[in-house]
Each structure stands twice: as C-alpha cells, then as structure tokens.
Amino acid sequence: MKLHTVKVIEWYDYPVVFIASNESGNQKFLCVFYKEEKNSIHYIVSPLSSTELIKLMFNYLDLRTHFLTKLPFLYECILKDDENSFFEIKRIKNISLDILPAENIFIGTLPKIEDYEIKVQNKKLANNDKYSVSEDLMMDIA
Predict the structure, then answer these.
(1) pLDDT digits (tens, 9 = 90+) for 52-78
(2) Residue at 26 is within a domain
(3) Any domain includes 70
(4) 106 and which of 23, 38, 59, 78 could share a cystine (Cβ 3.0–4.6 Å)?
(5) Can you give the pTM of this predicted structure?
(6) Is residue 62, in this structure, part of any structural domain at all?
(7) Which residues of 9-40 are buried (b: 16+ CB within 10 A; e: fewer)?
(8) Residues 124-134: pLDDT tens digits?
C-alpha cells in the first residue's frame, strides 16, 4: 500500500510524528519515528480513525496506548533520502514492543485546532462551537 504525508505534527530534522493517507484519501494513518539509519528513517504506522485522531490531539490517548490497541495490525515505513511523495508500508510480523513510543507521550498540544477543518454530518463548525467526540465526528486534515 502506498501512502503520502498529509500533516506533519512534530518535526526535528525530519518528520517525527505525522499523519499520512492512502492514495484514494479515504484512510488516514499515524506514523511515528522509531529508528534512524545512515540513509533511511523508520516509522511505525497504524490505521487512524477520526475519533482516534481527536483523542490523540486532545490528550485523551497517548501514542503507546494507541499502537497497542492496533496490534497485530501495525505497519512499518522506511523513508529513504531519494523518496518521492508516496511511500510504501509493510505489515510488521512479530513486532517487538521496544519500537513503540514510551508510555504517557501525548501529541495533543503540538498543533493548533485551527489547523483542522471539523465537520459533523457535513456541517462545518466554527472553532468555538461545542461538539462531542463520537463516530459521527469526521476530521479532514487541512
């Protein structure tokens, strides 16, 4: 499966945490750095629902817990210096829990909510409108 980067959440010489999407744009993925080699950077990747993204962004869910709930459906992507805009992911078999982020690492305070367009049942909400986190809530990355 090929993915492309939609939104970089944390950057340090390269993307550390970012959201990716499949080619058709109908599935989002969370990608988190876990290893750097001479000419490549390795990420652990998991499918990501809109509800999970909101929980991560608002500190209701830490990164490790998110990945643990996705076992055994975790993937790896390796970005090389010569990569184009799309990159491949491969399912990880026999995953070592050592590659998962440490406990209690939250990403919720990194980006601002204004960076996102929030829709409920195709109705756009103003940034100050109240809403509840539910499966009806869809989030499109700007």
Answers:
(1) 988 988 889 999 999 999 998 899 998
(2) yes
(3) yes
(4) 59
(5) 0.73
(6) yes
(7) beeeeebbbbbbbbeeeeebbbbbbbeeeeee
(8) 444 444 443 33
